[in-house]
Write a structure and sequence with these properties.
The structure is a homotetramer.
Chain A lengths: L3 H14 L8 H17 L15 H25 L3 H15 L2 H4 L10
Helix pairs in contact in A: 1-3, 2-3
Chain lengths: ~120, ~120, ~120, ~120
């Protein structure tokens, strides 16, 4: 169980104590989310048939966890700012996806969840 | 409270039922996370002094929630695949940030959480 | 005038001399392009009404130029790998955009070039 | 040869005629660049050992060219706005990279151009 509201309270206080709320518009937080997602992608960018990232290597794992944390932290802040429930919107989207991708028709086809 | 494990179980079943696990390598899920973060950014890309996105407009709000959901869904899948606790890594990172950005020194300065 | 082919020849030799062609699949180069675009975004992520990035500050300018260079370098490599003319596809797209966004209807509206 | 200045003149006129200059701050153009880079990545996101994107398939190729065009168009606009020569910064960066990655030491190692 993730205590979303407690995490958001800590992050809100953290920003408030540093006078950072002025920088935390939804747009800026979304930009930061993209930057951090890019840093996570960087760790995997050169994967090839002969060169697969070893996610169990301790140093690599630590870097991956660090970037996942950054993405999640900004996502929590965005959700807090916009008063969005992460679980709520995820469940709504999963229902939509279940309709959009009927099991039989989608089997083994590389689609994206949001593909039209 | 977010039931991370239950959401991950549903997403895992969703992928399994459609034979999508073959596409859900960590790297591919991280790529998808970036694509979805970009779609969220798209909604805010033309903001200016005279043109601020109205996050309370119902249609806009629906689009934003949809993209937030996609980002969260892929983040949950990545965490599941890599056996990472989202709450755990977020708390570890928040502690690191508290050390890195002492309140007095950081006040009112636009920094990023992960800035060196 | 940009000597696209000469730049691409240098970059190709650079990769060949280091045995990096094995990492430079179209997909990997596109990933790297995204990572570099994210690093460019990072420089602007906290802009606000009261905090605008001074693009004439020498240190900032140097960082911006560095990231623009990275984005362009990967774009040149992608175009080389896929045998795409950057100028050719840009002109084709600009014609499409001229049809899609008639002057009178588009005046002063925040749209994106590729909006449907 | 790419006539950078002529392309930039056309894009500038295009924006001016539609009153879009108000939206084309460096930051907004950089955001748009990220969005388009993400759309290019989307075309490759599900690649796997068994599922490689066929870049010679005509429909796929058309989509790829379209997204490459968007990335290049925004890069040209950014360079125009900031008075940066794309060729100039690319050559400067390539010299830096040649120093940073000596041929013998870099052979066959997956690094990124900008890695420290």
């Amino acid at each position: 169980m993730i205590d979303e509201q407690e995490l958001q309270r800590i992050l809100r206080d953290f920003a408030n104590n540093r006078d950072w709320e002025q920088f935390h518009s939804p747009r800026n937080l979304v930009s930061a989310l993209n930057v951090e997602a890019g840093e996570l992608l960087e760790l995997f960018q050169w994967e090839s048939a002969n060169h697969v990232v070893d996610v169990n290597d301790l140093e690599t794992r630590h870097k991956i966890e660090d970037e996942i944390a950054d993405v999640f932290i900004y996502l929590l802040r965005i959700a807090d700012k916009l008063d969005v429930s992460l679980e709520g919107v995820a469940i709504a989207k999963m229902k939509k996806n279940a309709d959009k991708y009927p099991i039989e028709k989608s089997k083994g086809k590389a689609v994206k969840y949001t593909e039209l």
